[in-house]
Automatic annotation (TrEMBL):
Organism of origin: Mustela putorius furo
Biological process annotations from GO: cellular response to lipid
Protein name, UniProt field: Olfactory receptor
Entry-linked PROSITE patterns: G_PROTEIN_RECEP_F1_1, G_PROTEIN_RECEP_F1_2
Gene3D superfamilies, per database record: Rhodopsin 7-helix transmembrane proteins
Amino acid sequence: MSASSASIINTSVFILTGFPGLDQYYPWFSIPFSSIYAVVFLGNCLVLHVIRTEQSLHEPMFYFLAMLALTDLCIGLSTVHTVLGVLWGLSQEIGLDACISQTYFVHGLSGTESGVLLAMAFDRFIAICNPLRYTSILTNNRVIHVMVAILMRSALSILPVIIRLKFFHYCRPHILSHSFCLHQDLLRLACSDIRFNSFYALALVICNLLLDAVLILISYVFILHTVLAIASREERLKSLQTCVSHICAVLVFYIPIIGLTMVHRFGKHLSPFVHVLMGNIYILFPPLMNPIIYSVKTQQIRSRIKQWFSLKLK
């Protein structure tokens, strides 16, 4: 073992990884990544501002959308300093406590986003399958309770494995696979007994992300059944149109997660570049696409944004 490797092992500092073998291109990579983060921040802030200022958007569907935008904004804030720090050549080092904190926010916010997408699916289910009782079922108090439950589930369920990361012995070289910290990445470097973390993390994925995905799918089975029973073709299209944005957001969230999981599980022979690329897609693609999807596909938000720009151009 080299002296440099020994020093990495014997400290609580971890080394973040950009794109292996492409260090000389980091200044070029930093341009699109900086642009993506700028769109993430501006796009989600714009959606939040529209919902806050437009009185007609003060209803359950847009409250959930505001929570989704806030979650995406926080995901960007939790990773921007390490991702751009590596690409800008500022620092590739991160302390154990900072790494564990980032791991908590990355995975916790991912669980929050999954819960919000489930709540939005329930909102569409009530709006289409039981429209006459929509306002009586989704009252403001119930919406607040759902939001609090989503936050509590995400914040508390992941704590046991996050706390244990602090007490692990990391005897392998402290070189991470991404430019941000992930739970499975830290487990790979630990020489302690990681069985609890491995099984508990798997149970969380099954009970949270997988269960949410199954419930979203079931809700759309009922929605489709109700829509197909509508006699008018125009009314069927109108009903389905209200679900397009949410369906796109669900695909944008779950496809990168599935891809990253498959790469970590079955892609050990793949180039490290693929692992890094999938990790960045997992982190950045949903926060980037969600404000674009809802700005284009949601008529109320689209018209409000057009109105603002037309006033500024006059």
